[in-house]
Amino acid sequence: MRFWRFLSNPRVTVKALIAGWSEQTKMAVRGRHVLAIQDTSEIPFETTADNRRGLGKVKKGNVHGVLLHAMMAVDAGSGICLGLVGGQVWTRQGKTKKPHRERSLSDKESERWLSTSAEAKETLAQAEMVTFISDRESDIYAHWARTPDEKAHLLVRAMHDHRLVAGGTLGEVVKRSQIADKATIELAGRANRRARKARVSLRFGSVELQRPRHGVEQNLPKGVTVYFVEIAETHTPKGVTPVRWLLLTTHPVETTADAWKIVAWYRQRWIIEQFFRLMKKQGLKIEDSQLQSADRLAKLTAIAARAAAIIIQLVQARDGGEDQLAAIAFTQDEIETLSALADELEGKTKLQKNPHRPHTLAWAAWIIAKLGGWTGYAKARPPGPITFHNGFAYFQSLHESWTTLKGAFKNV
């Protein structure tokens, strides 16, 4: 009931909840090269013809729900999740009658790629370098023209066969380019693809994209220089669709090593797909919510997004590989609660003690895993997302009780 009242409170807004995503991230990105990975996921909720719960359409067919656009900060060298940066949560309000080509970018859903990147620059101000990474839908000329600056770069999988200032198209130039290298790479598993190895060829070069002839956004430069990197599978197993990535970036790509580095950075995009899966079928199961208001479902989505990001951080930290502070995921009050729980969860033997340095993220992961039912013994399987989800939910309940208790004593 308390949580229901929290979601019903008009002073609790989606905008304010999203603003809270990045409180710890600002500190975590300091001095790093950050991959700011963004994507959008449709989150459907069960509705009936008589009760749409105030939700607009998502996916194909008669499916209703909200859309979540999120940006996640990842360390370019280690692949460590540093937290959420920003994003949007919304539900559609019917169809727009004005033709897509006649609408300004600010009147299109695709505007989110630019606005999220622009807003993120403040959160990521203390990073040494930022590379905004996204998939094909964000291959928008205005994005190439407006987002990059002296510290910010773009890395996007190409959707369009762009026309070039020098004549011809992007696809024609890529096809004429010589193969620079060949290698075998690991492909992570997806919903429609098993994890496997792929033998690929590599091409790279540079082009100057031409401003589109159509559209209302004509206050843009006539050309933008970008570098392309293509990997294409050369020997595909029977019945398998060959892999081909055509990546565009503002990072200079002058050597084969530069090109493979771009591929490696783009492959880090898998983490945001994990994030969305964790929110839905593989953990938080947000789609099962019975809340009857679109506004409350949007707020719930914003809250669940932050929880999912923290769970990913805890999974990564469980083995203590990188000695990060717990403060990149938890508030100071939450760390105090973790400290209060630490002694209670440890056993008497050395094997039952928390092996990690206090107030590190690995130390916090050990505590949350124990709360989620992990035994902590060497023979036990490492705690996974479900264990951390259960432990984090239990921790939040304990933290709320602990905070209430401390407040009561202060008023005595």
Descriptive overview:
This protein is of the alpha+beta class and 412 residues long. Helices cover 34% and strands 22% of the residues. The chain folds into 3 domains: 14-135 and 269-286, Transposase Inhibitor Protein From Tn5, Chain A, domain 1; 155-264, Transposase Inhibitor Protein From Tn5, Chain A, domain 1; 318-410, Transferase Inhibitor Protein From Tn5, Chain A, domain2 (Orthogonal Bundle). It has helices at 2-8, 14-19, 25-28, 111-123, 141-146, 170-176, 256-267, 270-279, 294-317, 332-345, 361-371, 385-410, and strands at 33-45, 56-58, 63-75, 81-90, 129-134, 152-157, 181-187, 196-210, 223-233, 244-249. Strands 1, 2, 3, 4, 5, 6, 7, 8, 9 and 10 form a 10-stranded mixed sheet that branches. Strand 5 (129-134), helix 5 (141-146) and strand 6 form a beta-alpha-beta unit. Helix 8 (270-279) packs across helix 9. The model has no long low-confidence stretch (mean pLDDT 90).
